[in-house]
Amino acid sequence: MTTVATAIDSNPNKASKDASDPRAYLNEIDGDKAMTWVEAHNLSTVDKLSKDPRYSEYQADALTILQATDRIASPSFARNGMIDNFWQDGTHVQGLWRRTTWESYRSGNPQWRTILDVDALSKAEGKTWVFEGGDCLPPTSNLCLIRLSDGGKDADVVREFDIAKGEFVKEGFVLPEGKQSVTWVDENTIYVTREWTLGEVTSSGYAYVTKVVKRGQSLDQAVEIFRGQKKDVSAERGVLRDIDGKYVMDTSYRGLDFFNTELAFYPNGHTDTRKVVLPLPTTAVFSSYYKGQAIYWLKSDWTSAKGTVFHNGAIIAFDLKAALADPARVEPLVLFMPNEHQSVAGTTQTKNRLVLSILSNVTSEVRSFDFGKGGWSSFKLALPENSTLSLTSSDDESDQLFVFSEGFLEPSTLFCADAATGQVEKITSTPERFDAGGLQAQQFWATSKDGTKVPYFLVARKDVKLDGTNPTILYAYGGFQIPMQPSYSAVLGKLWLEKGGAYALANIRGGGEFGPKWHDAGFEDKSSARL
Predict the structure, then answer these.
(1) Cα–Cα distance between 77 and 278 in angstroms, integer?
(2) Residue 178, beta-bridge partner list
């Protein structure tokens, strides 16, 4: 007779299949019982930490860094040469949406005009509004559909705002709280995707029905224009515009799962019910519409009708309207094909250029592309080498873009680059927050069980002995094709690196460091622990 041992789970926070969840009350974000639990555990944690003699010093250093106001006001391009910024500090906890001229911004002492004071709005309305951005109607971008979340919930309210007047539009578009999306069609029309009928959401909890709402209409007068499927992750109808903000055609989106989508086009306008789905893999991602070209990022291999093989990770482009007229004959050109140690981190557009952010061995470069009679051409922008470059904003009315550069030991530096001429100008830098003297950042490669070389960074003192005895913080994350890149962590530097500790960042599989294959390898073999 064989005896089978039964495992006993002693975790008090885990309920059995037949029992109610003893911690279900924690789902009530602001519930009295939930807050009592949180406060008790916070007190317990602080009590243990504060008994360490270093606690007060470390806390003061961390607060000084986190509350610093001499950081860079991250800029974004607005219309007519203006620069926007959303600013938060100890006085403006919920934040200020503000604007200045480009000349004023680059002077180093910008004179800001407040567009919306979220703290003042919260106080006036008895809410804790979290500003979640907005969709502004091109080409003037004066009327914006602003999203506000009470306390930072997934659900938000949407209100129409007039930037020129600095106020919400009286009797303008207003959507009550919900998990929803909204986009402009024209000044008097919007598409709204939300839970129109109670329970009419996907199994993932997102809306999948889009209706047309006209100015002056109540929501119960809205007319359905698109419906996804309940099994989708999410679905919605949208609008495709060119870089000048001109309407091109309608689109619809269905998230089939977290890695596959169906993107459809409606070439004949808003009232068109005939959708065209191009014969591309459902893993392909539509990135941009540039000079009539559809830009796609391939996440899996694809063979065209002509038999051409396009490999995963490639950025491809083709004439969109021609492809929609005859979908079976889609034959793209390859803009960029990464090698085994490269990947595309993102794409953006200026008025005349298409810009790609590329990772090579987990460090960044930026390339500017153009499409003309001779096909595609590109060049590399002269931005800092061996650093992490982040494209934060690009201008629809010029070829300028803002780029941040940083590293483990180099604080953030803001550059303005011209994607047409290649000219790069340093604007400003964040002050150093810790003493990096004697420290160095190095990249190494570890060999996994299956022989794969896995990169990692080590930040430590130059004289450190690599014998495994130095206190080290190891961080790794591999998921959703998100690359882990060098970044300037002032608190880590001040409280750990300055004190002699080492920091390692491992670029394990599952991330986006080396493209789709690197991501897929993170979960292909669930039977073994793979890096």
Answers:
(1) 33
(2) 156
The one-letter code for the residue type at 469 is T
Around 222, how many Cα atoms within 13 Å sit in the side-chain half-sphere?
Answer: 23
Quote the distance between the C-alpha of residue 228 and its chain's center: 24
Reported pTM? 0.86
Six token digits for residue 368: 């500017």
Give the per-residue pLDDT at 450: 85
Backbone angles phi, psi at 40, to 5 degrees: -65, -45
Nearest residue to 319 via CA among 265, 283, 272: 265
Q: Are 136 and 158 in contact (CB under 8 A)?
A: no
Task: Determine how many CB atoms are found less than 10 A away from the CB of residue 402.
Answer: 20
Is the backbone of residue 58 left (phi > 0), alpha (psi -120 to 50) or beta? alpha
User: In this predicted structure, what is the pLDDT of residue 524?
Assistant: 58
Rounded to 10 degrees, what is the CA torsion of 275, 279, 281, 283?
Answer: -20
Burial 424-463 (b: 16+ CB within 10 A, else e): eeebeebeebbebeebebeeeeeeeeeeeebbbbbbbeee
| DSSP bridge pairs for 455 | 445
Task: Kindly report the number of other CB atoms within 10 A of residue 3's CB atom.
Answer: 5
Paired tokens of 371: 């499409």
Mean of pLDDT values over 61-82: 92
Beta-bridge mates of residue 146: 134, 159
Token pair 């037949």 in the structure block, residue: 18
Is the separation of the CB atoms in 265 and 240 below 8 Å? yes
Q: What single letter denotes the amino acid at residue 59?
A: Q
Secondary structure string (H, E, C) spanning 238-281? EEEECCCCCEEEEEEEEECCCCCEEEEEECCCCCCCCCEECCCC
Q: Tokens standing for 207?
A: 């809306």
Distance between CA atoms of residues 509 and 131, nearest Å: 34
SS3 label, residue 123: helix
- 17 has a pLDDT exceeding 50: no
Contacts of 459 (CB under 8 A, 6+ apart): 408, 409, 439, 440, 441, 442, 497, 502, 503, 504, 505
Q: Is the dihedral of CA 17, 23, 26, 28 positive or negative?
A: positive
